[in-house]
Design brief:
Structural class: mainly beta
Number of helices: 2
Radius of gyration: 38 Å
Distance between the termini: 127 Å
Number of strands: 12
Shape: extended
Strand content: 35-45%
Largest sheet: 12 strands, mixed
Number of domains: 1
Oligomer: single chain
Length: about 220
């Protein structure tokens, strides 16, 4: 019986201990932010209007003057958005726009002249464009707008015959110079009588897009 007992004892000693099964790690805790504690920016309409009023306005260099019904007027602020020459090759869109606001602190009154279809660096200057309702033979449509308040607008009075014109006299570097005169009619008779613009002159540095600055000649 002793050999059998010895075998049992040896077998018992050689038996491997049961494998240990490791438990899965506990899932990480996700921090949840209390939305009530998030500061919401205040968009107060009054305060935002005050900020807009003191925000710097970007203007081009130059001068813009005209007489309205015989009264000389200097338009002191030349917004870059109103003074640009553009040519987009992919769409063949060309435009020259020149304009000014009476005061940098206000949006009105302003005068804006647009030459739709004119590529400035390809024009032979001086060149005059009449204010009309349609394009001229060379594909340019010249228009003029005088606005004294939101939607309170005067345009070239083309119904009365000759409504005036704008002359581009020179283009040097980024600066264009010229003159203009126009007979304006209100879009509504409630706005007031027609206005005559005379002795209009400008010398403005334009923002150029797709248009090469002119060097060495007019």
């Amino acid at each position: 019986m002793r050999p059998l007992a010895a075998i049992l004892v040896v077998a018992s000693c050689n038996a491997s201990p049961p494998a240990t099964v490791e438990s899965a790690p506990a899932p990480a805790k996700v921090a949840v932010q209390d939305t009530k504690a998030i500061a919401v920016p205040k968009h107060d309409v009054t305060e935002m209007a005050k900020a807009d009023a003191v925000a710097p306005k970007v203007g081009a260099s130059g001068t813009f003057t005209a007489s309205l019904d015989g009264a000389p007027r200097q338009f002191a602020f030349l917004p870059t958005g109103l003074n640009a020459a553009t040519w987009v090759q992919d769409t063949n869109v060309a435009r020259v726009q020149i304009g000014a606001v009476a005061d940098a602190g206000h949006d009105y009154p302003y005068i804006r002249i647009v030459l739709e279809g004119a590529r400035l660096d390809q024009l032979e200057l001086p060149k005059t464009f009449a204010f009309t309702d349609t394009k001229t033979a060379d594909g340019v449509h010249a228009s003029i707008t005088y606005e004294i308040a939101d939607r309170k607008v005067w345009n070239a009075d083309t119904a009365a015959g000759e409504a005036g014109s704008v002359t581009l006299e020179s283009f040097q570097g980024e600066r264009v110079t010229g003159s203009f005169a126009a007979k304006l009619a209100p879009r509504s008779s409630a706005f007031g009588p027609p206005i005559a613009i005379t002795e209009g002159k400008f010398a403005v540095d334009l923002r150029l897009r797709g248009v090469a600055p002119k060097v060495g000649s007019k």
